[in-house]
Design goal:
The complex is a heterodimer of chains A (265) and B (642). Chain A has helices at 48-56, 95-99, 101-106, 110-123, 139-151, 169-186, 197-202, 225-229, 234-239, 241-261; strands at residues 4-14, 21-32, 37-41, 63-68, 71-72, 80-83, 157-161, 189-193, 206-211, 216-222. Chain A is of the alpha/beta class and 265 residues long. Chain A has two domains: 1-79 and 158-247, Rossmann fold, CATH 3.40.50.300; 85-154, no CATH class. In chain A, strand 4 and strand 5 form a beta hairpin. The N and C termini of chain A lie far apart (46 Å). The model of chain A has no long low-confidence stretch (mean pLDDT 86). Chain B has a two-stranded antiparallel sheet with strand order 1-2. A two-stranded antiparallel sheet of chain B has the order 3-4. Classes of the chains: A alpha/beta (265), B mainly alpha (642). At the A-B interface, strand 6, helix 3 and helix 5 of A face helix 25 and helix 26 of B.
Amino acid sequence: MADLVCEHLNMTFTNPQTGSEVHALKDINFTLKKGELLSVLGPSGCGKTTLLNIVAGFLNATSGVVRLGDKIIDSPGVERGMVFQQGALFEWLPVSKNVDFGLRMKGMPADQRAALVEKWLDIVGLKGFGNTPTYQLSGGMQQRVALARCLVNDPEVILMDEPLGALDALTREKMQSLVLELWKETGKTIIIITHSVEEALLLGERLFVMAPRPGRIHKEYNLPFAERGLTESLRAIKQDKAFSKVREEILTMIWNMEEEIMGRV
Amino acid sequence: MFEWLSDNRASLAAVIIIALVVMFVASIVIGRRQADRTAKDAVFGDPERTRGGWYWAVCGVAALMLIWFYFSWGMGRAFFPSAANELCQVAKIEEVLSPIKAQLPIGSRYYKSTLLVSRNADQLNEVEQAFPAEAFSAEETAELNAIVAEIRKLIANSSNPANVKPELQEELHRIAGEIEGLSDELRKGYAGLSPTPEALAQPKWGVTRDEIPILPMTARGVMFDDVASKAGGVTDAFEKARNVIPANDEIIADVKARLDAIKVANETGSFEPRIAKLRDDYVKAVERIYRRLDDGTIFPADSLQTINDAIVGLDTAVDDAMGGLAWTKKLVLPGQGVVKSRTQCTEQGSARWLPKPTDVVATLLRLANPDVQGDGGYKGVPLLWWKWLPIADVVGFFVPDWIADVWPGEYSRHGADGSITPNFKDKLLAFARGDVNLGAIPVLDGHLWDSLFRVLVALFLGILLGVPLGLFMGVSKFFKSFFDPMIELYRPVPPLAWAPLILTIFGIQDDGKIFLLFMVAFAIMVISARTGASGTQLSKIRASHSLGASTGQILRHVILPNAMPEILTGVRIAIGVCWGTLVAAEMLAGTTGIGFIENIARTVSDYELIWVTILIMGVLGLVFDLMMRWVIAKVIPWRGKG
C-alpha cells in the first residue's frame, strides 16, 4: 500500500479534424496518502473525469506523472478499482459471476472465489442475490454489485466516477453510508467524483473544487464530516451550521464559475 | 386408409367445408359479442384493443380456406361430384360443333363467307391501286383490268343465292335438319339411358392426373355423349359441302388462260430486270387472289341461315337439358367451365392453376411417402427419410489418399502364380479410399434434407468464420479497414447474380450451392458481429480492464457476449436469406432439393406439386423463425433490459 502522487499533470486534447486544442488539465499536483478519502467537485467540463481516467490508466497524460508508490501509472491495473455511474455491469452474467469476474480472469479456483463472493455480497447487503440476473436489480442494488465487483479484487485505490449520480435521494443516502462504512472497514484510498456539493462534503476527507478552462484545482478543503459520518447520522450532519456554511461557500464558488463559462460576467 | 381417403376426397372436403362454415359463422358471433363487451372501456387506436382476438384469427383462416375451396372448385366437387363429368359431355358437343360454329355468326360474329368476300375485295383493290403502269403496254393494261373484273365476277357469282346448285341446297337443308334432330333428342330427355360399366369403373374426379373422367357416368351425361357422337357426322358433312357453280368454272378456265398468256409474254419478251420483276410480281399477286376463289368456300349468306338457326336452337336445347347443371356451373365452378380437348377434359379458370386443398394434401402425402420404388417420393428420392451411410464413405472423404503413398514401402505386385497378397500399404490405400467395410450409420435422406443440409452447413461455416472476423473488425482499426472493402464489394451483389459463376466453378452438386450460401451467411454474420462488437459500451471495456482482464479475455468474455443479440439477429436474417437463395439456386441447377422439385413441376405444369413445394417452404421458413425466436429468448434474456 502506498501513496498516490500526481506531479505537474497536463492534458491536452487535439481535435483530429480541425487540429484545435483543448486544455483539459493544467498543472495538477497533489499527494493522496494511503487511506485518504478525496472527493472532487466542479462544474461540467472542468476535467474531473479526465483526471480520474488518467489515474485509472485509461488515458495517458500529455505531460507529468501519476505514481502509486514507486510504480508509474500508464495503463489500467487491478490495484486501481473503478466504479462507474451506470454500474457497467455485464448483464449477461448473474450477480455472483459479475462479482467474481476479476478473480476468474486471474484464474482463481472456484471454491476460493465462491467464499470471497459470499463475503462481499454480504458486506454490500446483497446476500442471497448471487444467482439473480443483474437486469432484474434496481439501480441502487446494481451499484452495490459494482462496488462488490471492485472490492473483491482488493485494489489499493478505488476510483468512483459519479457512482451515485443516477440514484434517487433515499437510495443515495443509504449508499453514501455504505461508502463511508467500506472506507472505514477496508482503509482503502478512495477518489470520488461527484456533481453534488452535499455528497462531496459528506464523502470527502479532502475536497478539491476544480475550475474549468483550463481544468485546474481551484481550492482545496480538509473537512471533518466524513469522519463524523462514521458515527453520526448523515442527515444530522447536513443540519449542522458548519456544514451549511461550507456548502453555501462552495455553491457560490461553482455558481460564479458557471456564470463565467456562459460569459455573463 | 390413405387410399380410401384419397378416393373419397370429395366427401372429405364436404365435411371440412361444412366445418369451416360453422367456424366462420361462430367466430363472427363470438367476435361481435366480445366487441360489445370491450366497446365500453376501449377507444379506437388504443393498442389494448388489438390484444388477443383468437376468434378473428379463426374467422380469417376459415374465410381464406373457404375462398380457396371455392375458387379451386373444391366446393363444387364436394357437393356436386358428378358435375365435371357431365360438363365434360356437354363440352364434347361444343368441341364437335366448333368447326361449324366458327363459320357462322353464332361462333364468330360474321359468316366466314362474309369475311372471305371482304378480304378478297380489299386485296383486289390494293392490287389494282399498286398497278405498275410503266411495266405494261396499253393492250396489256386493258387485258389485266378485264381479268380483275372477271375475278370480281367470280366473287359475285358465289354470293348469289340464285346460283346455288339444287344438290347443295338439299345438302344444307339436310344438315340443318339433322342438327334440329339432335335438339329433339336432347328435348326427349335421358329416360332409359344408363352409363356403361366401363364408365362407372373410372377413377373419380381429381383422383388421377387427368382430373376429370371422360366417359359419361350419369344418364344425363350419356345423353350429351350420344348427341356429341352423332354431331360428329353433321360436322363432317358440313365441312365437305362446297358451293361449286358451273358459271364460275368457265370464268376460272378463262382467267387461267389469259394469265398464262401474259406469263408467256413475261418469259419470252426481253425486259430490263426492273420491269421484268414488276410484271412478274403483279401477275403473281393477281393469280394468288383468284386461286383462293376456285375452291367453293364462299356461300351466299341466305343459304347458311337455316344452319345458323339450327345451331342456335341446339345451344338452347343443350342449356335446357343441362337444367340444374347450368346453375352449378355458374355458382360453384367459377371460370370458363370444362373444356374438352382431343384427349381429356380440363378445368378452366382459377381451378386450372389453383389445386383443391384436399388434392394438395394428397400430393403432399404421396410426396412424403418414403416408398420410392412405389408411388412415393419424387424422381426416385424421398421427401424426407433416412438411409444407411457406410462409414467407409465418410472416412474415404476425409482421409486423403496420399497418406498411403507416403507410407514407406511399395504397393504389392502380382506374383508368379497370378495371385496378389495385399500388404499393409495396400490396406492403408483401401482405407483411405473407403474400400473397406466399417459398418454403416443411419443418416437423413431426401429432397428436404438435402435442402436443409445445404443451408445448415453453409450457415455453420458462415458463423464459424464470420463471427470472429466480425468481432475483430468491431475492435480493430486494421481488421475493419483491411477487410471492409472486400466484404462490402461482394456483399451488395444479389446472391443469385453470383450463382451462375459459383455453380460453374464448383459444380452443380452440393459444393457450389453450399459455397454460394456460405457467401451469403458469411457477409451477414460479419456485419452483425461487427455491429455488435463495436456497440460495446466503453465503460464495460474499461471496467474489465480495471478488473485485470487481458485483451483476449475481454474479447471472449465481454465483447462476444455483448454482441450476442446482434449475432443472433444476424443468424435469423441469414437463415431467411439462405433459404431463399437456396431454392432459387436449386431451380438453376441440381438433381435434388425442394427448389428442384418445384422447377420440374413447373416444366410439366403440375400445379398441385408447385403449391405443395410452396407450402413446404413457407412452413419451414416459419419453423426456422420460431426456433430462432425461442433461441433468442433463451440465450439473451437480457436483451433490451441492459
